[in-house]
Specification:
Helix content is about 70%, strand content about 0%. The chain contains three helices and no strands. It comes from Parelaphostrongylus tenuis. This is Mos1 transposase HTH domain-containing protein.
């Protein structure tokens, strides 16, 4: 499943708002959308900005 950047950001924001930590967010998105969909650094950077 190919996601664009906006879709990835929305998934990360959703996970943040429901209380999922960054490490679990990486795991959950990659399990649902395919390994390598999001990287750890990207998720941690976005979580830092929220």
């Amino acid at each position: 499943m190919e996601l664009n950047c906006e879709q990835k950001r929305l998934l990360m924001l959703h996970e943040y708002k429901v209380g999922t930590n960054a490490a679990d967010t990486v795991r959950r998105i990659n399990e649902a959308c395919g390994e390598g969909t999001v990287g750890k650094t990207a998720v941690y950077d976005h979580f830092k900005d929220y």
